[in-house]
Every structure is written in structure tokens, then in C-alpha cells.
Amino acid sequence: MKNILRISVWASILVLAFSCTKDFEKINTDPDAYTSVPMTNMFAYVHSRTAVQFGDITGPTIWAGYMCKLSYIDQYNDYIPTNNTYGNKWYQVYWGSTQLNDIIARTDEDATKNMHNAAKVMKAFLLLWNLDSFGDMPYSEAFKGAPEDGGILLTPYDKQSDAYPAILEELGKVADSWASGLGSDAIGEGDLLFGGDAELWQRFCNSLRLRYALRLSNVWSGSKALAESILNNPSKYPVIEENSQRAYFWWQGSGDYFEPFRSTFRTRPNDWCASEIFVNHLKDMEDPRLKLFVQPCREDGETYRGGEHGIASQQLSNQVRYSFLGEAYMTANNAGFTPYYKACETYFMMAEAAMKGWQTPMSAKDAYETAVRLSFEDEMDIANGWVPAERKVTAGDVDTYLAGKGAWDGTLDRLYYEEWVALFKEVNEAWAFYRRTGYPKYIQTAVYSEESAAIYSAAGCKAGAKQYLGDRANAYWKGAHTDVPFRMPYPDNQFKFNKANVEAASAGIVDYCWGEQLWWDTRTGVK
């Protein structure tokens, strides 16, 4: 009898329990809460985190020849696998791509065409940046870790010769999708790059395609046809062609959202200065943009002087001798911008395409002059408001420059040096530009002056000796490498958790950053 009673009691309890749990989820669900993250919010977070890494001051600012370390001069320990510094960039690419994959999966080319395509363009931008930075990387088998996607946790690396064309093919599909008409959906306030303007995303898509058609032009048979199809079909494949269309990430300058250059200068103002090769080139060319790009040194408030590279010392002496970047590029209000694509780039590439004999809508001369004017106007728009009257640049200065030392002379030398100057602050692109073209040549030819030798004689500096833009790394390598890094070192986590695949990809790489050059880097005589 007691057992029957116990069973009846437990049965009643179970009935009550199941009756309660049946409605548990309904009772405990907040009717005002999101059941999934809004896509525009996800898009914003990808943008902000990408800009932190893409706009970082470390590495390419030096390797492209624009900046120099004043203190804590880099040496070997900056060029080894790490999960910080360069590893953070790798992580951002794959984390960001995962978020964008979620947006792509939740959208389509019909009802949500604009968001769908913009997410695809941003993902391509990230993956292409990673290829430019590291070389071979996981691509075709990446993002398949979930059991339903294949459960691939140890991802093999794709060759650059496969990955670049594959990503460009994906961008081509997006370009054709938008060529048939923009979507009707709103990208939303989370578009921190173009403010929700789908047409600007369309232009950015085609501009990236043009950029990589030129980057791969020495190694990929599809470059000429791709560039010509874009340049000669502006209604189908519009590109960024005005400064108002530029792809810039603008920082709000508050909270955690400080422009990365300024974020460094704000707490460590004496760590960086302008590079001697950059300053001297602008002075030699009588380029008015010098007054915007660089501040006079603090020693006398008049002289523009850049820092020497490769001094085997912990810091440069008498640091007030050296020029900081211009005020607009390290703003006191912590705001500012990180450039992804400048309008002038389109015309510099058009000029180069014309010089290759490709079909273009403008002559090399006209495209070059348009590019230089756009560069001047862009910097004037950004920087004139930050400098005193005597340092402002005017429209008349552009005319004088193009009639003087900046005049078109029909040479790649003139074209490439001007493009290098115009890419200022767009350092990842400038580093890639150097590895493709060898410009600025100063990275290979700059030597120490008599003045520098006298100041740094204790550090072994000799007049006429080669400067090394890898900074103090050469004191460690002792001449083993003659060039800035060809690539960033793969992250340490790859060697820990994907060892076989990263080691296979590293065959031919020397000292993590040198050895085998990137696929499109066809220079000779560098090591």
C-alpha cells in the first residue's frame, strides 16, 4: 500500500514538472529581446575591429618607407611568430570572415541583395589583405569546422596562385549581380565605411578588382582582360573615381574608438617620426604636400627632417631634431581616418595600364595628372584645417607642381614615385606596392649622411653605408637580408594547432619573413 502511495505521489510530481517545463521557454523568454543579432550590428563590429588592425601603425608604416622608430627600435624579436601584432591581423581576418559568412547565409540576392553583396565584398577585402600579408593561407577548406560543414579543423593552405583568382571570381559574381541593378534593402547604420550607400559598395567592389588586376599583372593571364573590362565599362562596372567616393573608415575619437596612429602617439609620443627617405623625397621634389604630411621638427619649428633607419641603438638621439607626422594624421581629438582605397589610385592604375598598352579610356598622361590632382585635393580637404596658414596647400600649388618637378615625363619612375607618395597612410597597400614594383627605390639605395654618421658613430654608423628599413633587425641578421620583410610571420597558434599544414606552407620561407617571395612579387636581387 505504501509503495502504491509513493508511486502515486511521484507520478503527480512528474506530471506537474512536465506541465511546468512545457511552458518554461515561453515563460522565460523576453518578448522585447532579439532572438538573433541584427545583421547591421554585426557588420558594424566587423568594420570597427578590422579598422583597428588594418590601421595599425606597426610594420608596413616602416616597410613602405613612410615612418621610422624614434624609440624601442625594432629588432629580430618583432619578426617571429606571435599571436599579438601580426597574429592579431590574421585572427581578425578569420574572425571577421566568420561573422560575414553568417550575414551572407541569412541574406540572398533578392530581398536582401545589398547587404548580401556588401558582406561578400568585405569578406573578399579581408581575405585579399591576408594573402597580401602572409602569402599562402587556408581558403577553400576554411570555415568548415562545424560537423555539418565537414568538420575540418586542421585546415590545409591554398596556394596564392589558386586563392587570388578564386576570390576575384567571387568578386566578379558580386559585380555582375549589382550590374543588373542595386537592391532595395537597406544595409543600415552598421555600415561604417559607406554609410549604407550600396552604390559606393558597388564601386568599391570593382575598384578592388581593378587593384588586383594590376597587382597580379606580372603573373596572372587574366589581368589584362579584367582591367580592360572594368575601365572601359563604367556604367556596368563603376569604380571609385572621386574623392567623395573614397573608402575611408572615420574614427569617432572617443571611448575605445581612437584612430590607431593617434592611439599610439597619445600615450607614447616619442616612439615614431617621419622617415628620412619620405621627407627627403618630398623636399627634393618641392612637393607642397610635405607641409601637410609632416610637421617641422621641434628643435627649431622650421626644418623638416626624417629619421634614419637601421641605427643599431635602442633609440635615436636628440629626438626633437625629427619631424612628427602632420597634425591631420595623428589628430589631437583622437579621431581621424584609416584609408582602404583612395580615388587617385584608380587613375594611377589606369595610367599604368595605358603604359602596358592595355585599352584605357584616358591616356597615361591624362590619367596621371588626374591622379595627382585628386591626391592633392584629398589631402587638402583632410589636412588644411589642421595646419597654420603658412602650411596650407592651395589649388595653385597643384598647378605649379604639375608644371614643375611633378610634370609627366612618360616614365614608370615618375608614375610609381607619385603613387607611392599618394598612398601615404594607406600603408598596407603601399607595402604591397613596393613589393610589386620596387618603388620607392630608396628602400634599397638610401645611405647614411655625414651628419648621421657623426651623430651615431658609437652605434657603428658610417657615412655612405646602406640604411636598412627593417630597422634594428639588421643588427641581428648582420646582412643576411637586404630588404624589408616579404611577408608577415604566420601566427604562433598555427604552429601550435595546425603544425603540419603551416610547416608545409612555410617551405621556402627563411627566417619567417624572407626567402620565397609572394606570388606576384617578381623582383630580383632581394633577400
Rg, alpha carbons: 26 Å
- Please give the CATH class: Mainly Alpha
Tally of alpha and pi helices: 22
Structural class: mainly alpha
Predict the CATH topology: Serine Threonine Protein Phosphatase 5, Tetratricopeptide repeat
Give me the secondary-structure topology.
Elements: H1 2-22, H2 24-27, H3 39-54, H4 60-63, E1 67-69, H5 86-105, H6 113-134, H7 160-179, H8 198-215, H9 223-231, E2 247-251, H10 260-267, E3 272-274, H11 276-284, H12 290-293, E4 336-341, H13 343-355, H14 364-383, H15 395-403, H16 412-422, H17 427-437, H18 442-445, H19 450-455, H20 473-477, H21 492-497, H22 499-505, E5 509-510, E6 514-515
Antiparallel strand pairs: 1-3, 2-4, 5-6
What features would you describe in this structure?
The protein is mostly helical. It has a single domain (39-263, 330-515), classed as Alpha Horseshoe (Serine Threonine Protein Phosphatase 5, Tetratricopeptide repeat), CATH 1.25.40.390. It has 22 helices and six strands. The chain has a two-stranded antiparallel sheet with strand order 1-3. Strands 2-4 form a two-stranded antiparallel sheet. Strand 5 and strand 6 (514-515) form a beta hairpin. Helix 7 runs antiparallel to helix 8 and helix 8 (198-215) packs parallel to helix 13 (343-355). The longest helix has 22 residues, at 113-134. The radius of gyration is 26 Å and the shape is globular.
Record keyword descriptors for this entry.
527 residues; mainly alpha; Serine Threonine Protein Phosphatase 5, Tetratricopeptide repeat; two-stranded antiparallel sheet; two-stranded antiparallel ribbon; 22 helices; globular
